[in-house]
Structures are given as C-alpha cells and as structure tokens.
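Thread: Newbie trying to understand structure tokens

Hi all, I'm a second-year student working on a class project, and my supervisor (Dr. K.) asked me to get a predicted structure for one chain before our next meeting. I've only ever worked with sequences, so writing a 3D structure as a token string is new to me. If someone could post the tokens and maybe explain what I'm looking at, I'd be very grateful. Here's the chain:
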Amino acid sequence: MTKKSIHILAIESSCDDTSAAILKNDVVLSNVVANQKIHAQYGGVVPELASREHQKNIVPVVQQALVEAGIGKNDLDAVAFTKGPGLMGSLLVGTSFAKSVSIALNIPLIGVNHMQAHVLAHFINDENQNIPEFPFLCLTISGGHTQILKIKSHANFEILGETIDDAVGEAFDKSAKLLGLKYPGGPLIDKFAKKGNKNAFVFTEPKTKNDLDFSFSGLKTAILYFLQKEVKNNPNFIKENIYDICASIQYTIINILMKKLKLASKKTGIKHIAIAGGVSANSGIRKNIKDCEQNLGWKTYVPNFEYTTDNAAMIGIVGYYKYINKSFDTENTLAISRLKIND
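---
Reply by user tm_fold:
Sure, no problem. This is what the structure looks like when written as tokens:
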C-alpha cells in the first residue's frame, strides 16, 4: 500500500544536460534543466567536458528543483536516476549523486532506462498532452537512437525496428555540419526548411534488410558527395540554396521515418501512434504525424516540447511506476552506457 502522495526526486545526466525534477505521484512540480553551451565550439559533445559540467551543475540544479516544487529534502520518498544508456562519465555523476541522496535520507533508489523514460514521458499527468492507450507504437527518435517500439504496458517494450548505423539525430546534425551550420544543427535545418522547396533536390533513401530497420549513414554520404559536386561547379552553391537544401534533406529524412512507421502500423494493426525523443520536437515530423490522424485514422500522441529533449521529469514518471511496484535498486547498482531498451 503506497502513500497517497509520493514525492520523487529525479535526476537526468545521460549526455550534456543536467536536469532535476520533483514529481508528486505522476504530476511534475518542477523540472529544471541546465544546458552545457561549452560544446558548441567543438561541434559536438565532448564526454570529458560533459562530466565536469555535470559535477558543477548537479547540486544547484537539485536545489532549484526543490525550491520550485516547494518541498524540502526530508519530504522525498525516493530518488530516481538515469542508469543508462548514455556517456559513462556523465552517467556516473548522476548515479553517484543519487546513491548519496538515497543513503543520506534512507529512501529507495530507482535506476531508470533513459529510452524507456522518453516513451513514458507521455504518461506525465499534464493537461496539454494525452495519455496513450495500450498497445501503441512509439517512434523513438533522438541523437543516439532511432527505434519503432510496440508498447504493451509500462514495462513491456518490443523492438520492431531500429537503426543499423547512425541515429536520425546524427543524420540531422551531420548534415548540418556539412552545410557549415552551428551545433546543434538539427533545429537549424528545421528552421531553414520552412523557407525552402522540399522537392528542389532528390536524395536516395537507403535500403535495409529488415523493412522496419533504419539506415542513415548512406544518406549522409550521399549528401556529402552531392554538396562536393555542386560546390565544385559553384563555390556559393550552399549559401545560395541553403533553404532548399535544408528542406530537401528534412523531407527525405521524414519520408524515411514515416514510411517505416506506416508499415509498422499496417503490419501490427495498431493505430495508436506516439513519438518520443529529442528529434520529436522537429516541426516537420510533428506535422506529418498529425496529418495521419485524418489520412489514416490514427490516434496520435505528441509530447510537450519540454518532455522531448533530455529532462528529469521523464525519469521521474518511470520512477513513480517503479515505486508503486517496489522495483528498487541497491547501492551496488551500476551505470551502463549501452543499456538496452528492455533492460
């Protein structure tokens, strides 16, 4: 029998964002995120710098989360943290801090799978988002992952398809780098694509052995060769055509995602469709998903923007369900950089 109100401190430190949240049952009281701007000058996340920044940020971020939630540390019933997957140095900071809190306050420790958290962010009790019905399909798209999952329950995830090389977030960011755009480049491609012609340039869509798997490394190479050829003929080609190039790249990537997702829906007969992960903030993807409600009769679930990128609220909602089921970890639990979705 659980208490009527369960207060969970959640910590997310899988990559370069330090985040802490307080949840009261399935309601988010606070969700604080400290971004690390230092990586922009390197064109990508530097693992050693990320872990150092987490060490600087974690205490003030947790303190701010408690203040915004209006509770004290002694009101906490459990501490949840990202166990993996992610950068090992970054994960260790959050794991060590969570263990210390658990021991100091004598409260349960709950390890959370980062990718499960992206999916279950849909179950945060928020008036601005709908809660999916089981079973549903979830297209999980981020900087490190691209998967189509069949979600049977809060703890039952089946992989129907996944990337065999680059994740979709990498495809966006690497394409942006080829165009000379600043890191992170994915949001810039989305921004510029709105002003361009999506049919201006055609890029070949890579094939995969499993028709629900993804491949993006070949697309990146095709874009590279295309740009090299055009720039050789016209040194100002990228500058003169940036909007059309971005629109064409985004159109190709979204087309790949949507074809696979539509096929998964057809194969399973499931029409409850969700998206999750940082790339689900992309406006083109959101529009294409919503269009399927009218065109294909889907019931779609699109998370709030604040729950798409890495954040502790999504860790907290998994922690809440694990708390109810008394699925706790010991102080000997370890961070796992390559943790699988079903682990």
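A couple of things are worth pointing out once you decode it. The first strand starts at residue 7 and ends at 12. Strands lie at 7-12, 17-24, 27-35, 78-84, 109-113, 136-141, 146-153, 156-162, 272-276, 299-301. Feel free to ask follow-ups in this thread.
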